[in-house]
Amino acid sequence: MSTTSFESLQWSRRFLDETPGEEQVGGRPRQVPNVCWSRVHPSPAPSPALRLWSEDMGLQLGLEPGHETVLSGSGAVEGMDPYSQRYGGHQFGHWAGQLGDGRAITLGEVGTDGGVVELQLKGAGATPYSRTADGKAVLRSSIREFLCSEAMHHLGVPTTRALSLVTTGEVVVRDVLYNGNPAPEPGAVVCRVAPSFLRFGSFQIHAALGDRDTLATLVKHAVRHHFPDHCVDDDDGRIAWLDCIAEDTAMMIAHWNRVGFVHGVMNTDNMSIHGLTIDYGPYGWLEDYNPNWTPNTTDASRRRYRYGQQHQIGAWNVARLLESIGPLMEDPERLHEVLKTYYAAYEKHNNRMWGEKIGLDEFRASDAQLVEELVALLQRVETDMTIFFRLLSSLEEPKIEHLSTAFYDGAEYPEEEWNAWLSRWWQRTEGEPNHERMRLANPKYVLRNWMAQLAIEAAENEDYSVAERLYDLLKKPYDEQPEFEDEWFKKRPEWARHKVGCSMLSCSS
Ligand code: AMP
Ligand code: MG
Which of 19, 25, 169, 454 is 20 to 30 A from 248 (CA-CA)? Predict the structure, then answer.
């Protein structure tokens, strides 16, 4: 495809034209009632430099690497009409009122061969929704967002995408652990891409404040463009539309569990209506298989968003979305049907994925026990999830000794019980687990927290080669890539066990 400039992209403004917004540009953080968006101008960056670029996204948009002026928020082109979205949300189980895009600014919507997408800068300055913060983002969190959203895409997990990472040349001050130690860090902006950045909270805010008209307008807009097979003129139609969101959300969370991803902040403002993983903050990847693990220090005591509870939280969040559509329903009681859809969809996808992970051609009800036993055994001693399932994917005889590198050093694993489980599994698969299927469900490489940390530390010293190499690796997570094995196919090194950025992450970004 020929090089396109930002000017010649097919800009459109469906959201701006079809939903109410605030025409005034920018202004101090404040409550902005009865609107879906506020017009804003990104803050210019003193010396923007392009550091990471997604070839794949670039190709879809017809863009060659570059454009750091636009992608840092330092220049507008004809067709753009930047805005921030207004939304609310439940944070850690409590209604938080108006939140909105405090550090995200949408440049506009752009037509591509694959449909219309929204281009959004994260970290390009304050908006009316920035509350007490600065609207900026630091290099550390931007690298984590860029690499992880692209890695998730290549893993086949529904996600928003990243086009670029640009450093701004500006220093941003952050107190990483909220313990009174603010420090300067390099600023950066990621340009992310999605069909839309509408969240559950986008609907909640209007329902919560009793603005039925804006709620109805937003629903109509969202369905017209993003769920074109649906019609929400009556309760049947509304239920069918919500069923679709519930299904997509359930499938996304089943995928998270398949690959060992923990989102970390499943607040309803971080739940996409497209069932896409969105808002990469203090997320993490399971190293040892521990369902109680969460990377988010803010959630360390209650562990609301721990790995093993993500699907329950998904249901809780869907329930909040349903409540927000209540004012549009003739019979709101019917909304309960959608929760049933959610649970049924989760079970269906989760079972299918377990079947793939252990190489069954078909998951039967009686296989649930085999999986349950496996999950219990994986927790007996510290066992690396990714390595375990990857080695299992090419196991030639049912003996645990061939999987021993998955166990942490010095861990005395229950050998007999493991061998007993492996034999039951072997019998179930008639000695022929579907290895090919397994290798497509059990990635060899995921973005372990310490891997991202190594990329960040190098980048903070102006060396982007580690990030580049990781990005290359993670484009083919299911391929063997033997040249990368020694460096990246391994358990968490000891230095990373209790390190900030690896085992402990905060929302400070
Ligand atoms: P999160 O949970 O990280 O998605 O963010 C929750 C809310 O805080 C959203 O409304 C964000 O826009 C806002 N927020 C987070 N970081 C910043 C920041 N640096 N500046 C302004 N707003 C922020
Ligand atoms: Mg968010």
Answer: 19
Query: Is-contact 29 103, C-beta < 8 A?
Result: no
Note the pTM of the prediction, 2 decimals.
0.97
Kindly give the residue spans of alpha helices, DSSP state H, lying in 98-199. 139-155
For ligand 1, pick from 131, 132, 168, 185 the residue to mutate: most ligand atoms within 8 Å of CB. Answer: 131
The one-letter code for the residue type at 238 is R
Largest CA distance in the chain: 70
Provide the annotated active-site residues: 269
CB atoms within 10 A of CB 481: 16
The closest alpha carbon to 131, from 29, 25, 42, 22, belongs to 29
**Binding pocket residue ranges, ligand 1, CB within 6 Å:** 99-103, 129-130, 133-136, 265, 267, 270, 279, 281, 507
77: exposed, middle or buried (Cβ count in 10 Å: 0-12, 13-18, 19+): middle
Atom of ligand 1 minimally distant from the CA of 135 = 20
Tens digit of each residue's pLDDT (9 = 90 or more) over 279-303: 999 999 999 999 999 999 999 999 9
67's tokens: 């454009």
Predicted confidence (pLDDT) per residue in 181-223, tens digit: 999 999 999 999 999 999 999 999 999 999 999 999 999 999 9
Report the alpha-carbon distance of residue 21 to residue 15 in Å, rounded. Answer: 9
